[in-house]
């Protein structure tokens, strides 16, 4: 009996939360054919992975990515796969590229996700051959995919297709009954084709790109709850999921999602919801103490099925000048980001009346809910033409100069060229004890990496490895907060169950998506970030993670696609170009069935 791949003598985690066992796995035809306590015959096997002393886990699932354009340019999605991710979910935050034309989709996507519009538009213009969800799925599945892909239909995409982008972002427009019916019909077509559900957005912080309707909020944010309920009814009928984000400025918004999810108020058929976001935010330090309990209580009282996505690492952000989404919280910030011309933007930032307005807004909004702590003493310069400022916080510079912190910040940007000043801050998940509690909290699930977006702001592609490191380190220190097997489950099988994805487990008969991890290299290398030029984004230097000694191998569909090592990782020949390992995973298909039909 010949195997295509043998993974020998590894500590095997099956993705269900069961305790690990030392086993050898034999893989054939894309499926885990054998899980053996002893040796397997390696005769004729072209690929043997020596996993002695290593962990063998199901490939990680990343449920919150924005690879919608990038998958068309680089179907290998290397920045995720090299860290053991084998399945990614597209179409989050109301943004997908299914129905909207290429120009509308680029305007919806680019500024929100901080990916240069010219490359998003080019990717869609050159590759958009579809006009229906079924055709979209066929087009994605025809790519030489590295990982598996599933997707949601974005509400902003849907709304734009029915109303047009102008009407979809006009607060005075209410869809007609015929238009609401058309939205429901198009959503149902997407679910019928195999999409997992719909994504929405209720927080108006994100803005459109382009010239036509620049700086308007996303279409999904203009929807009334009457419109949302009509679309959620389609999800309920199909048993599919909603991903969305409540409006942080309106606490009632979150309660409405719980009610819409409820079985009690909806003929005993609820809707699973994955919401943004559960974090220990510096701007709201007390919220973390009640967030999990509150979610569990509401789910129980209302019969709801709501979970919040949690990124299980410190939320460290970088920014070139003001190119950071948190500045969209301010009208003054949006006004500056509205200007793409660098000279015009610098002139605005230097203008005294603009600064007075910005200061008033900055100080006033700071008292309410916020995604950012707005503490310039906690914002450190890491790159600047004036080398004497590197390593200093803007707050410290303000103290030295006797200025308001916002003025010191703007002075440094104007004096050095706004985009020449790079700085960093941690906005959430900064307290280890609270971070550990969140990782074990049953009302959250692991996600929110934003992989493929915010290319100059963050790099959380390896968040799964970082969670495993923290769990392992805590166990060694005698202060466990999450067993390794439970951590693996939270990154794999649990997500597959909640989202309805045919992946996440590594048992006999399952699709063979896996990662082999060297726990001795779960070290400081997983916590850093690097920069790498992206050729298909015009050489833009993207933030990435590099810990290639940690992942010994990543396998997708029964094929080893990445081999790690201390001297760098290597992908198989033709990977992401003319060799296909992943596929589009439709809703409701089982992992084993997918494997056998691949």
Automatic annotation (TrEMBL):
GO cellular component: cytosol
Gene3D superfamilies for this protein: Metal-dependent hydrolases
Ranges where the Amidohydrolase domain occurs: 47-200
GO molecular function, one term: N-acyl-D-aspartate deacylase activity
Listed EC numbers: 3.5.1.-, 3.5.1.83
Statement: the UniProt record of this protein carries the keyword Hydrolase: yes
InterPro entries, per the entry: Amidohydro_3, Metal-dep_hydrolase_composite, Metal_Hydrolase, Metallo-dep_Hydrolases_sf
Recorded coiled-coil stretches: none
Keyword terms of this UniProt record: Hydrolase
EC category name: hydrolase
Positions of transmembrane segments: none
PANTHER family hit by this protein: COLLAPSIN RESPONSE MEDIATOR PROTEIN, HYDRANTOINASE/DIHYDROPYRIMIDINASE FAMILY MEMBER
Listed name of the protein: D-amino acid aminohydrolase
Provenance organism: Mycobacterium tuberculosis
